[in-house]
Design goal:
alpha+beta, four-stranded mixed β-sheet, 2 domains, 12 strands, Methyltransferase, Cobalt-precorrin-4 Transmethylase, Domain 2, disordered C terminus
């Protein structure tokens, strides 16, 4: 490692300079930030301008630093610490690996690295990371449903779905594919159990649609209802409500915006973020909904 070259390039997203060990609190915040971003190195004994100042290192200096770091981080961070020399002056290098879940706290708070600055994460940002980590446990459509078995699946409905998916999206699962194999390929079986999406589509969901004369375009009504099914919060006990007026139809759906979106985002072009992506994906396969990179207001 060419220390002089690294120091001459100034601080960055993965490099931080600290004058001395007296800045231990800021050092530990930066450790959280590096762990929650891309990892990095902290050079202790270097000024902000890159001047080597040296550090007095005693018998248990690095041991005390390790203890400070582990006691002040959660989950505990165990960085790689080395003592190096530049022109006979000693510096300490603390190397931090990127955390797998980006949820490392310093003094009970989360930090991140933006450019060469260590910033405290916002509450919303930290909550989004937590939700992302636990999404498989918190997301209704991917959870398993233990009260049914594969024998409860309506085979004809599944075959209709596969034929429709072939027709609409050229999906390549043969309608005569064995039941378990077809569900596996649709990602609707998890740990040998059916997901809630499988239950919704092939036990409760009626795919036999009638086409009569409607005052409103049937396709528009289907699109609205299918979106309600794909975006609703299934942990809520409330029902989807359809209200018909003289001049409009209103659909009320229990739920909330996905964590990636804010109300102000809806007033401008924004990405389509299904609240229940596994359900949405199946609807897309049979042409019930459309998928685009941007949704216009």
């Amino acid at each position: 490692m060419d220390l002089k070259k690294i120091i001459s390039q100034d601080e960055s997203e993965t490099v931080e300079f600290k004058k001395s060990l007296s800045e231990s609190k800021e050092i530990i915040k930066t450790i959280s930030a590096f762990a929650n971003t891309k990892g990095g190195k902290i050079f202790i004994g270097i000024s902000n301008s890159g001047k080597v100042l040296s550090v007095e290192i005693g018998k248990d200096t690095t041991e005390r630093l390790v203890n400070q770091i582990t006691q002040s981080t959660d989950p505990k961070v165990h960085p790689h610490i080395t003592v190096e020399k530049i022109d006979e002056m000693q510096i300490i290098i603390v190397k931090i690996k990127e955390s797998s879940d980006h949820l490392v706290l310093a003094f009970g708070r989360p930090y991140k690295r933006v450019g060469k600055s260590t910033l405290r994460m916002s509450k919303d940002e930290y909550e989004r990371i937590i939700l992302e980590k636990h999404k498989d446990r918190l997301q209704f459509d991917t959870q398993i449903y233990l009260k049914t078995t594969i024998k409860d699946i309506n085979k004809e409905r599944l075959r209709w779905f596969l034929r429709k998916a072939k027709e609409e999206r050229n999906y390549d699962i043969d309608p005569e594919t064995p039941l378990r194999e077809a569900l596996n390929r649709l990602n609707l079986i998890k740990d040998k159990n059916l997901t809630n999406t499988a239950i919704l589509l092939f036990i409760f969901f009626d795919a036999n649609r009638r086409y009569d004369r409607w005052e409103y375009p049937l396709r528009a009504i289907e699109e609205v209802l299918n979106n309600a099914l794909a975006h609703r919060d299934y942990f809520s006990n409330a029902e989807i409500q359809l209200s018909i007026y003289d001049d409009r139809i209103e659909v009320w759906n229990p739920g909330r915006l996905p964590s990636q979106l804010r109300i102000e985002d809806l007033k401008k072009p924004h990405p389509s973020v299904p609240y229940n992506p596994l359900i949405f994906r199946q609807f897309y396969r049979v042409g019930f909904v459309e998928l685009g990179p941007q949704v216009e207001n």
